[in-house]
């Protein structure tokens, strides 16, 4: 019996060691290599996009670099498709996701939310020649959204944001048709062709819409009518609570010391970091 107890004790100790190793898997890897791989987007200005020199730039890129700086590590970027970025089960390919991801109940099942780093109002975007003056004017119209995003969830009345203290979502629009697009800018490309030519409106983040207008798209935002306001989170694979907590503490520091206010103002023209 003594030998059996000894074997059991060794087995329990071994299991505890394995569990501990798994608990710090990502944190140990990043700090050991002094390098972090961030999953993000490559075609979502001004959040993250390729500039004229084919370099990734944007708000999410600056946030990623600041997190890496505070960790004392180098950072590199990968640009998987959106479903892969938000689907978890990365198998160590990425250490962090910084892609302006909304915390939804479905995503909470497969990825960890390290912390909210800014907020984004979603707006109704129209062609500049549109006669629409309110959301009611868009009932029965053709609405464009990026697929597999909260814009699509919203227009399909399936949006479930997983963050405390947010007011309930109000659905004020009954679309005649929903058209989905694989990229955040593609709906704007259709809308710019003319009012009602392919689309009557697009639902998108205010930051993306204003950036499109700034870059010469003949569009306007429907004034005084937000679709909804969402928090955006940095995400991690669901394998290492210590890593998620560590990154979360850095995000809190960046919010408290004004870094996130500075970066949102730099890229969006206003502070979107306030709770």
UniProtKB/TrEMBL annotation:
Subcellular location(s) per record: Periplasm
Domain of life according to the entry: Bacteria
Alphabetical UniProt keywords: Signal
A Gene Ontology term for the protein's cellular component: periplasmic space
Signal peptide: 1-23
Lineage: Bacteria, Pseudomonadati, Pseudomonadota, Alphaproteobacteria, Hyphomicrobiales
Residues in Solute-binding protein family 3/N-terminal domain copies: 35-271
Official protein name in the record: Transporter substrate-binding domain-containing protein
InterPro entries xrefs: Solute-binding_3/MltF_N
């Amino acid at each position: 019996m003594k030998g059996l107890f000894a074997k059991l004790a060794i087995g329990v100790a071994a299991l505890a060691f394995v569990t501990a190793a798994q608990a710090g898997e990502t944190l140990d890897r990043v700090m050991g290599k002094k390098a972090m791989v961030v999953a993000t987007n490559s075609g979502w200005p001004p959040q993250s996009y390729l500039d004229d020199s084919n370099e990734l730039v944007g708000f999410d890129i600056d946030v990623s670099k600041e997190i890496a700086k505070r960790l004392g590590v180098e950072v590199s970027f990968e640009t998987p498709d959106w479903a892969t970025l938000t689907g978890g089960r990365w198998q160590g390919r990425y250490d962090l996701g910084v892609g302006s991801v909304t915390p939804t109940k479905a995503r909470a099942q497969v990825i960890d939310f390290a912390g909210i780093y800014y907020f984004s109002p979603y707006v109704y975007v129209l062609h500049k020649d549109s006669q629409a003056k309110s959301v009611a004017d868009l009932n029965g119209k053709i609405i464009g959204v990026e697929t597999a995003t909260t814009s699509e969830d919203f227009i399909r009345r399936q949006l479930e944001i997983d963050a405390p203290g947010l007011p309930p979502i109000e659905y004020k629009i009954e679309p005649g048709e929903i058209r989905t697009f694989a990229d955040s800018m593609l709906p704007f490309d259709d809308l710019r062709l003319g009012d009602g030519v392919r689309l009557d409106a697009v639902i998108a983040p205010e930051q993306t819409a204003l950036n499109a207008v700034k870059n010469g798209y003949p569009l306007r935002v429907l004034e005084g009518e937000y679709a909804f306001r969402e928090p955006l989170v940095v995400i991690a694979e669901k394998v290492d609570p210590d890593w998620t907590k560590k990154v979360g503490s850095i995000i809190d520091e960046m919010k408290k010391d004004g870094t996130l206010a500075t970066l949102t103002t730099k890229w969006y023209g206003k502070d979107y970091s306030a709770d």
